[in-house]
Amino acid sequence: MKSNLVALAAGALFAVGLVVSGMAQPAKVQGFLDLTGDWDASLALVMVGAISVHATALRLIARRRAPLFMPSFQPRQTKAIDGQLLLGAATFGAGWGLAGYCPGPAFVAVGGASPSALVFVVAMTAGMLVHRQLQARARAVRSPSAT
Amino acid sequence: MHGFTPLSSLLGGALIGLAISLVLLTHGRAAGISGLWAGVLRPSSDRTFRVWFFAGLIGAGLVMRAIFPQAFGAGPTAPLGLIAVAGLLVGYGTRLGGGCTSGHGVCGNSRLEARSIAATVTFMLTGALAVFALRALS
Fold first, then answer.
1. Would you call A76 an interface residue with chain B, using a CB distance cutoff of 8 Å?
2. How many CB atoms lie within 10 A of CB B25?
3. What is the pLDDT of residue B1?
4. Scanning every residue of chain B, which has its alpha carbon at the shortest distance from the alpha carbon of A73?
5. Above 0.90 for ipTM, yes or no?
6. How far is C-alpha B106 from the chain's CA centre?
7. Which of A42, A66, A67, A114: CA 20 to 30 A from A34?
8. Rounded CA separation A48/A39 (Å)
9. Is the pLDDT of residue A147 over 70?
10. Does B125 contact A112 at a Cβ distance shorter than 8 Å?
11. How much is the average pLDDT of A104-127?
12. What is the mean pLDDT of chain A?
C-alpha cells in the first residue's frame, strides 16, 4: 500500500512539474521548437532543472544496494546507437512538434479535461499497439516454429 | 523573445527531476512516461505501480484544472485529425526508439548515455522541422 501511495505521489509531483514548467502548454512547446521564428528558449531550462536534480540524486541513490520497495534496481539498456533508435526518435519528434504534446503532458491535460489531449492519448496508445503487433509478426517470421 | 519564463521552467524541471528520482529510489526503475504506459497496456509484473503512477499524473491534472485553469494555456491549435496523426507518430516512435522526453531526455541524459543523447538531438531536430513545416503551411 505504501508503495502504491508513493507511486501516486510521484505521478502527481511529475504532473505539477510539467504544468509549472510550461510543458503542458502546446503553444509554448511549439514556441520552443520554433527555432527559425519567435524562439522561446524557456523549455531548455526544464531539461537543465530536471537533469541537475536527477543527476545529483542518482549518485546518492547509487550507494544503495536496492530500491526501497523492490529487490533490485532495473538494469539500464546497454545497446549501441542503431537505426531503430534514431528512426524512432525522429518519428516521435515529428509528432511532438505537430501536436505540441509529448506523452507526459498529454496525460496531465487529459486530467485537465482537454478533448485534444484525449484524442492524442488514444492515438498514441494505438501507435504503441501497432508497434507491438509489428514486432510480434517480425519475431514470428524469424522463428516460425516458435508459434 | 516571446513569453520567456526561465524561473518557472527551471523550477518545474527540478520537480520533474525530483519525481523521477523518487521512482528510482523506491521502485528502482527509470520513469519514462512512454515506457511506463506501454507496460500498463500489457501484463507486467509492476503493473499496479504503473497504474497508481498514472492515477497521480492524471488526477493532479484534474485538480490543477480546478484550481488554476490557465495553467494549460490555450490547448493545441491543430485540428483533431492532425492531433491524431501526431499521437500515432508519438506512440509508434517512442516504442521504436525506446523512450521520449522523460526516458531519454531526463533519465538517460542524466546518466550521459550515448543512446539518449543521440535520441534527444534527433527528436529535437525533427520536432523543430515539424513546427517549421506547420508554420510554413499555415
1. yes
2. 19
3. 47
4. B28
5. yes
6. 10
7. A114
8. 18
9. no
10. no
11. 96
12. 94
Give the residue on B whose Cα is nearest the Cα of A55.
B110
What was the pLDDT predicted at B2? 58
Chain A residues closer than 8 Å to B59 by CB: 8, 11-12, 15, 111
CB A111 within 8 A of CB A11: no
The overall average pLDDT reported for chain B is 94
* Other Cβ atoms within 10 Å of B68 Cβ, number: 11
CB-CB neighbors (< 8 A) of A21 in chain B: 8-9, 11-13, 15-16
Q: How confident is the model at residue A44 (pLDDT cuts 50, 70, 90)?
A: very high
Res. A83: pLDDT tops 90: yes
Task: Answer whether A97 sits within 8 Å of B131, measured CB to CB.
Answer: yes
Check: CB of residue B24 under 8 Å from CB of residue A58. yes
Helix (H) or strand (E) holding B38: helix B33-41
Range of weakest confidence among A7-11, A57-61, B41-45: B41-45
CA of B125 vs chain A CAs: smallest distance (Å): 7
Which chain A residues are closer than 8 Å to B50 by Cβ? 7
Longest dimension (CA), chain B: 47
Nearest to B65 among A51, A87, A112 (CB): A112
A121/B38 touch (CB, cutoff 8 Å), yes or no? no
- B113 contacts in A (CB within 8 Å)? 76-77
Cα dihedral value A12, A30, A52, A82, nearest 10: 100
Closest CA to B133 of A94, A103, A108: A94
User: Mean pLDDT lowest for which of A14-18, A143-147, B71-75, B125-129?
Assistant: A143-147
Angle formed at CA B115 by CA A103 and CA B102, multiple of 5 degrees: 25
Q: Mapping DSSP to helix (H, G, I), strand (E, B) and coil, where does residue A68 land?
A: coil
Between chains, do B10 and A48 touch, taking CB under 8 Å as contact? yes
